[in-house]
Design goal:
Number of strands of chain C: 0
Distance between the termini of chain A: 46 Å
Chains: A alpha/beta (247), B mainly alpha (203), C mainly alpha (209)
CATH class of the largest domain in chain A: Alpha Beta
CATH superfamily of the largest domain in chain A: P-loop containing nucleotide triphosphate hydrolases
Largest sheet of chain A: 6 strands, mixed
Strand content of chain C: under 5%
Largest interface: B-C, 68 and 79 residues
Radius of gyration of chain A: 18 Å
CATH topology of the largest domain in chain A: Rossmann fold
Oligomer: heterotrimer
Number of helices of chain A: 10
Distance between the termini of chain C: 34 Å
CATH architecture of the largest domain in chain A: 3-Layer(aba) Sandwich
Order of helices and strands of chain A: EEEHEEHEHHHHEHEHEEHH
Number of strands of chain A: 10
Number of helices of chain C: 9
Shape of chain A: globular
Strand order of the largest sheet of chain A: 6-7-8-3-9-10
Order of helices and strands of chain C: HHHHHHHHH
Amino acid sequence: MTSLIEFENYTYRYPDGTTALSGFTMNVEQRERVGIVGPNGAGKTTALLALSGLIFGEGTIRIDGETLQKKNGRQLRSRVGLVFQNPDDQLFMPTVYEDVVFGPKNLGWNAAQVDKAAKEALDAVELPGYEQKSSHHLSSGEKKRVAIATVLAMQPDILVLDEPTTNLDPHARRRLMQLLASLEISTIIAGHDLELILELCTRAVIINNGAVIKTGEPKELFQDKLLMEENYLEVPYSLRKVREDVY
Amino acid sequence: MHIPDGFLDTKTIIVTNLISGTALYVAFRRLNRAVSPEKVPLMGVLASFAFAAQLLAFPVAAGTSAHITGAVLLAVILGPFTSLVLIAMILLLQALLFQHGGVLTLGANLINLGLAGSLFGYVVYRIREDFLMAGVAAFLAMVAGGVCAAAELTISGRLPWKAAVISIGTAQVVTGLVEGFVTVSVLTVIQHVRPDLLELRKI
Amino acid sequence: MRHSFIDKYSDLTTPIHALHPRVKLLVFLALLFYFAAVPITWWIVGLNVLGLTLGTLIARLPFRFVLKRMMIVLPFLVLIILFIPLFQEQSWTDAGITAARAFCSILALILFMSTIPFRVLLDELSRLGVPKFVIQVFSFIYRYFFVLIDELERMELASRARTPNRSRKHYYTALSRMLGMLIIRSYERSERIYQAMQLRGYDWEESEV
């Protein structure tokens, strides 16, 4: 069986010559939740943008067996639901409803389908009745969930979240975690919230300098103090055994 | 210098709107031919920028303050016609949302800010394309806009010409200095941080 | 927050709010033309002020809110009144009538904009044939204007926190550098927004100017 997502020896250089990804290789299986962790500048966001067909480098990315290329980028793109770190960049329409239907409308669905998709997406993120609200007046947690609804409405194969818990208060973060746990969809979560990845993901990938350092079960990886510190990470609080670990 | 409704007479309203309407039509035609997809969010966000920047008060003297318009700045970055269209949109929104300026006086205000800033200012800037010239252009544009405003009010029979030119002109010299200073500083910051933004296609 | 009054009262349910947006738009424009063009006597001024005041009452707009928004025409009035002694053809009556025209126009403008949500106005303009491109840019402005104002206020606060005793030169430089950074951030934001649009299948052909 083919993996849902495959990066194979993928390399990306920015126009100014900086290498963001070099020989990046990883995969995501169907119905799997994978966490990508690594220091700032390790290439997390670049990998997500490449997967969404927004930037193109050397090497191969396959989505459900299909190779992502410039010519099918637009069509494959809609199967990857990327949720940006800052929901203000993703919610660009005046009202929640207009934002949620933006994608479905562009996919050419008819009015009934568009309406149904929007309703289902808002129900899924537990924000029914928010259609006419303006994004500017929402809380950070609500904005994040609307942003997730805008991509869920397009019924993607995979949900990809970049730093999903930035700017969320503990309560909003907890609700988001429950929401992500309840969605039955393959998910990639990138970011620094190791506790979240520990709780939700079955697999974690540590990356640094644009390449995969190690893949494995989150608990196992995150316990490895040396590995974590070499990659500018930290053993999560919940995995520390003795107080000496706290300094 | 946004003229509110009620300060211009009928003939001035008609003439100024005809002039501005024609200029906008030409600008739209130019944009229509050359605009690319990423320009829509760019124009929207940069117009929001100019709109927000206009709310920033630069204290001048005796409790008065100056507001910048950014017409020359936008023209230098995005080109004169894009700047003109954005200024027109900002003027409409300012009138509707902030009651700053009027609706029937939109034509007159677009002459004073848009034609004077985006077009005349850009022509001045093209004489020698450097930041100092952009500052000079921004200053001259504000003064020219003030003279236009004075003329509009005089033709409408609201103010004597001399008094109008002297009072509005003085105010515009001061705001023009601020506008010129801000234009040069903002361009310098851009040059320093993201010089590629000065290389966009200008329409 | 310098933008909290926008659309503050536009969601009320009163007979004026309930009017069809196109009717409201046409009545509003007709009123503006009327105030600009029709020769005005004091009787007419009185009637208009009475009518518009009644309108604001029916629309349940707070009096202080309306008065505060009206004050924006004052500098122009002062300018005109100051120069009356120098202007032979102009009399106090003329100045008064100019003031009446200005106040009636702005009252109509406030009444109109406070009883129609901005989004509804855009929809109506779009139906009246305003190009889609213009409507799109307007909705972007309406969405991001607030975001940018808040960003600007945060930057202003940060700069104030670091410069307790600022000279004017310092302040000007700080403000302009702030604007420089804001325009760059805005540009970068527009790039991310464009990516967000592409991700949701933004099709250029369909939304051309």
